[in-house]
Amino acid sequence: MTQVPSWDNARCREMGTVLFFPESRQDTINLLPHIQQICFECPIFDKCLQYALNNRVDGLWAGTDEPTRQTLRKSLNITPRPLVDLGDYFVSQTDEAKAARKKRALLAAETRKQREGLKV
Length: 120
Description:
This protein folds into 2 domains: about 80 residues, no CATH class; about 30 residues. It has 4 helices and 2 strands, in the order αααββα. A two-stranded antiparallel ribbon has the order 1-2. The N and C termini lie far apart (about 40 Å).
């Protein structure tokens, strides 16, 4: 499962999300220097950047906007995974498929057990 970095020690933790999800390109340009100052001194900067590069995320992550992440991904040969919103957390689509297969296998096993229990 794709894990969002733990925010326990993140500098942005108490700032609210609105700063990190600007509504326009101009807002992004205006906010980015301030966000970078916060992010570049953050103890989880590396984990946050890795997450942002490996997954298709919106907004400002690890002091980067999407055009910057695209440039970094290209130079590092990284293909980001699309994420699926499951409410409390996100998973990559490949992780979602694995979870669905596992659930089907568990249901099949439970069905077999029930059938075997009926045979006397």
